[in-house]
Amino acid sequence: HTEDELSRSSHSNPGKSLVNGIKTNPASNSPKSSLPVPMGPPVYVDLAYIPNHCSGKNTDPEFFKRVRASYYVVSGNDAANGEPSRAVLDALLEGKAQWGENLQVTLIPTHDTEVTREWYQQTHEKQQELNIMVLASSSTVVMQDESFPACKIEF
To answer: For residues 63 and 91, what is the distance between their CA atoms, to the nearest angstrom?
Structure first.
């Protein structure tokens, strides 16, 4: 397209815009609406942070089918808000089962919560079958007047 064509097309569709290559009408988009995720090959990464503190609001099995990580960090520590979410931890099992490859996956919880403990105990056989290891660290980092649990990850 030439600049004139692009200019004319943007003026002929006032109120419309492109988001990720998909035409949208900003007036009809509400904060809760979402665009369909275009299909594509999975993405392989070394480390992935499970979005929104492992809340079920933003993460489902599709996330784990598409984002294939060697390590997933679970940082949820707010039971009142469903963080971490048992449904998201189950979604990891469901998504990983679809990979077709038995790659090693390590889950790194940053907090010891009742939800992660129960999930670990109740799904341990499935975790082993899917080659998922839950990393529990007994290491502690001490910095001046503060200390916190930590783990070391090597790539």
So the answer is: 8
